[in-house]
Design a protein that fits this description.
CATH class of the largest domain: Alpha Beta
Oligomer: single chain
CATH superfamily of the largest domain: Succinyl-CoA synthetase domains
Shape: flat
CATH architecture of the largest domain: 3-Layer(aba) Sandwich
Length: about 700
């Protein structure tokens, strides 16, 4: 290793990195680079990387921002392996954007890997190699959990928290000027001994690389938990201020995470606790149970059992239904005050009867519908010695019952701090993870179930397809801002792709509208169609329910003045299209549920959204996001996640929608987004159909908006 900017000035990056390597007992050669010193903390010091006796495997750069790129250039030219840049002052500040762009171009042109800038670096515990710009806590134990964090402080807090996680590798990626999360994810997943990875993201990053990294994790059965900034405007602004990049569309990012079978965390505590559970294979259920199978919750508190049941339902965790034989056995074991059920409150009356507690847990874990147990056990701090012994005995009895049953199990406290460090360590030796806090425990249970049941090959294959589609659509555009298509042009393309739209004809004048109507069936709709017309209702550029020729002519003449005004305003605004709007005459569609179906490629990956549409699209924001490519089966499986799914099934006396037809309609739209190219080689980055009418006899797009990249 070489540390550029090494010094003995306390608190500086150059001092901290050298001290970290010394304290860890780094077994390789360590060189310091500083033209003003001959040695640093007993290590030889040279003026520049060119003065090293041979190229080093890794360089840590800890100098002011303007001096970073010259150091990187020296590292490249002298054949060093890669660099960690802990220096700040790059893309996270307006003044540093040019430096970051130069750093990125320099490193990428040379194929030279760089971590950072504006990050803490890399810690590999097994190799005693903390290339880290902050203090590394003493006593960290090596294990199977890796962490990739775009925030240095989130990573610092993770390794400093007293929760007994055994880390394998920790990376603070910083601004990701060269290496992004996807690069780190794919590389770390291939390291021996990694069993689970925690990701903290502030920005989307490269969607294709992220999908490929997640595919490696799926293939190797490595659990992944993700926490990402950006659900609020304030959160997005904070991410942009920190990294100099936007947070992106959270819905699309989350859809990718869920497609990969990864867990979605809501805060750093939950992120770490979920990852701890995912790193323990023995906690995962692996067999698909009978119809009413799922999780069993055991506690000594009726209040806790009720809260746990509510929270489990809120995140979609199914509770197992105990069979008759198990219920009978529990009635024999439980006190009269207890009620047999799931969650099971075995009551505090049995607190001292450890043998019976073990039998109760064994009975529940042996029940066929129970795929996994969540056992609550709070251990307050500073107990008197006699109580400390009691609490430990109860914990061991509960664990013994779980082990005898052979059922995957987690222990949890109801509050994050009611965990004994000794108890956590003791349970870990048996393969039972201990989670701090009820919400985190239930989230961890759901994540481990998902990972245990995941079809690794199919998931990895789909993620590969998503990566390919992302790269394909990123090449859609040509230089410029792209262009909007007129509705009639968009609908022609949709029709050719097999996406159902109403029968329609175009006309240049009111009289020509009558000619067009001769080939259609009343009632009709009449619209103005042009590249600059995107919100017809607001412009008054649409008429519906036209019953006959006379009414059609009247509306066409009325729309002529609106068309002239639109054309005039477009010319004054300097819009590239000088063509006046056309009349679009089309047949009215039947009744049904109004939906919005959108395909887009301007987020982290291409995606498809199906949601409640019409005038309610923005107000209710009820939609499901599906990564592309998406088969009709994949779209159909996503539809029940809609809050308004009951409407599609035919609630309140309405006829049910042809859900298979709707799924096929949406899938075709997604395929069109991925495959279409015009004569100039441009593809779509947005196709929005709103409203789409879905009914018992099919699905049809009434309005269409599309943009070429």
């Amino acid at each position: 290793m070489a540390v550029v900017g090494a010094t003995e000035r306390p608190g500086s990056y150059g001092d901290t990195v050298v001290r970290n390597l010394d304290v860890a007992g780094f077994p390789g050669d360590l060189y310091c680079v500083n033209p003003g010193r001959e040695s640093v903390h007993g290590h030889p010091c040279v003026p520049s990387l060119r003065d090293l006796p041979s190229p080093v495997d890794a360089v840590v750069v800890a100098v002011p921002a303007p001096a970073v790129n010259p150091a990187i250039r020296e590292a490249i030219e002298t054949g060093c392996g890669g660099a960690v840049v802990v220096s700040a002052g790059f893309g996270e500040t307006p003044a540093g954007t040019g430096l970051e762009s130069e750093l990125s171009s320099l490193a990428r042109a040379a194929g030279f890997p760089v971590c950072g800038p504006n990050g803490n670096g890399v810690i590999n515990l097994g190799h005693r190699a903390p290339l880290w710009g902050d203090s590394v806590p003493a006593g960290l134990e090596a294990g199977g959990v890796a962490m990739i964090s775009q925030s240095g402080n989130v990573a610092v807090n993770a390794i400093g928290s007293k929760r007994g996680i055994r880390f394998h590798t920790v990376v603070s990626t910083g601004n990701q000027a060269v290496l992004g999360t996807g690069d780190w994810l794919g590389a770390i997943a291939e390291l021996e001994g990694v069993r689970a990875i925690a990701l903290f993201q502030e920005t989307d990053g490269d969607g294709a690389e992220l999908a490929e990294g997640l595919a490696v994790c799926a293939e190797r059965e490595i659990g992944v938990a993700v926490l990402k900034v950006g659900t609020s405007q304030a959160g997005q602004a904070a991410a942009a201020a920190h990294t100099g990049a936007i947070a992106g569309d959270q819905r699309v990012f989350r859809a990718l995470v869920e497609e990969a079978g990864a867990a979605w965390a809501t805060d750093p505590h939950e992120l770490l606790e979920i990852t701890r559970v995912l790193a323990e294979p023995r906690a995962r259920p692996r067999r698909p149970g009978p119809p009413r199978s799922g999780l069993a919750i055991l506690t000594c508190s009726g209040g806790d059992s009720g809260i746990a049941a509510d929270q489990a339902e809120g995140i979609g965790l199914q509770l197992a239904e105990l069979d008759g034989e198990t219920q009978g056995r529990l009635r024999e074991l439980l006190p009269e005050a207890a009620t047999v059920g799931n969650p099971l409150d075995y009551t505090s009356l049995l607190w001292f009867e450890t043998d019976r507690l073990a039998e109760i847990v064994e009975a529940v874990g042996s029940c066929e519908p129970v795929e996994q147990m969540l056992i609550f056990h709070d251990h307050p701090a500073d107990l008197r010695p006699e109580h400390e012994s009691e609490w430990g005995a109860v914990r061991r009895a509960l664990a013994e019952g779980a082990l005898r049953s052979g059922c995957p199990a987690l222990f949890a406290s109801t509050l994050p701090d009611l965990v004994s460090a000794d108890g956590r360590r003791e349970l870990a030796e048996t393969g039972i993870p201990m989670v701090g806090g009820m919400r985190a425990a239930l989230a961890a249970a759901a994540a481990s179930q998902r990972l245990g049941r995941m079809e690794r090959g199919a998931v990895a294959e789909q993620l590969g397809a998503i990566a390919a589609a992302t790269r394909n659509t990123s090449e859609n555009g040509i230089e410029g801002d792209g262009s909007w298509l007129a509705e009639h042009r968009t609908k022609s393309i949709l029709r050719d792709a097999g996406v159902s739209v109403p029968l329609s004809l175009t006309a240049l004048s009111p009289a020509a509208c009558l000619t067009a109507a001769a080939g259609l069936s009343f009632p009709l709709a009449l619209k103005l169609s042009g590249p600059g017309i995107r919100h017809k209702s607001e412009l008054g550029a649409v008429r519906i329910g036209i019953a006959d020729d006379a009414e059609l002519l009247h509306h066409a003449e009325d729309l002529m003045s609106i068309a002239g005004q639109i054309h005039l305003e477009a010319g004054l605004a300097g819009e590239p299209s000088a063509e006046p709007p056309l009349f679009l005459v089309e047949e009215m569609a039947g009744t049904g549920i109004e939906l919005i179906v959108t395909a887009r490629s301007d987020a982290v990956i291409p995606s498809l959204t199906v949601g409640l549409g019409g005038i309610w699209a923005e107000q209710l924001a009820d939609g499901v996001v599906v990564p592309l490519p998406a088969s009709p089966v994949q779209v159909r499986e996503a539809l029940p996640r809609l809050k308004a799914f009951g409407l599609l099934e035919g609630s309140r006396g309405s006829r049910p929608v042809d859900l298979d037809g709707l799924a096929e309609f949406a899938s075709k739209l997604g395929r069109l987004l991925l495959d279409y190219r015009d004569e100039e080689g441009r593809g779509f980055d947005l196709i929005e159909l709103n409203p789409v009418v879905a009914g018992p006899d099919g699905t049809i797009a009434l309005d269409a908006l599309a943009h070429l990249a």
